[in-house]
């Protein structure tokens, strides 16, 4: 097996500053960045998506209002990808809709939903070099297709923005995750076409 190279990179990297649908900033980072509440607050992070399985970060800060469970300082979502073979083919597809849902959710004005603001987004995994990179690339490719017309163009942009060294590109992101994202992109287009046809049945049948 080829040894895993280790190159220095920042814990947190700005990928785009106009992420749809609300024009917020998208960051990709590692577990160190995700666990640093001060760093997240400094960058106005409102949504954190943990892409890694078996990586749990305790954000609990104060008791919840209704059930006395602790609240974190932002909305926290978890996908749980393996950084290798073993993910079902649909998991990256699920990750796309998890991220899209996190951005588009309209939370009720109740004490049990304390974090409703539309701030910036952090995608992270353990090293911020594979799982979070592929989910960011897929989302950019679908949502910002004018700037990232191919998945490869989105990956290339993130590799540079994330300061990933060319010698590690063979696994940043892992090849099986890239193929899963290509599969996901095809299905997202089908799903979105079906949604459009359902919303405008007359135009679809014309």
UniProtKB/TrEMBL annotation:
Domain Tyrosine specific protein phosphatases span(s) in chain numbering:
121-162
* Superkingdom assignment: Bacteria
Recorded hits in Gene3D superfamilies, A to Z, give: Protein tyrosine phosphatase superfamily
Protein name listed in UniProt = Dual specificity protein phosphatase family protein
Report the source organism. Answer: Microvirga alba
């Amino acid at each position: 097996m080829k040894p895993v190279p280790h190159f220095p990179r920042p814990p947190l990297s700005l990928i785009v500053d106009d992420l749809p649908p609300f024009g917020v900033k998208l960051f990709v980072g590692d577990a160190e960045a995700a666990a640093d509440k001060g760093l997240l607050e400094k960058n106005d992070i409102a949504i954190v998506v943990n892409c890694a399985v078996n990586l749990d970060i305790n954000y609990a800060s104060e008791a919840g209002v209704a059930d006395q469970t602790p609240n974190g300082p932002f909305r926290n979502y978890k996908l749980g990808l393996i950084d290798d073979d073993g993910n079902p083919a649909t998991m990256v597809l699920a990750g796309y809709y998890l991220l899209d849902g996190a951005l588009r959710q309209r939370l009720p004005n109740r004490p049990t939903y304390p974090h409703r603001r539309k701030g910036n987004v952090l995608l992270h995994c353990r090293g911020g070099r594979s799982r979070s990179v592929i989910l960011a690339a897929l989302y950019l490719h679908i949502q910002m297709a004018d700037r990232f017309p191919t998945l490869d163009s989105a990956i290339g942009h993130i590799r540079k923005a994330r300061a990933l060294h060319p010698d590690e590109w063979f696994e940043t992101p892992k090849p099986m995750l890239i193929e899963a994202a290509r599969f996901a992109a095809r299905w997202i287009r089908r799903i979105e076409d079906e949604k459009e046809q359902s919303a405008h049945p007359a135009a679809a049948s014309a």
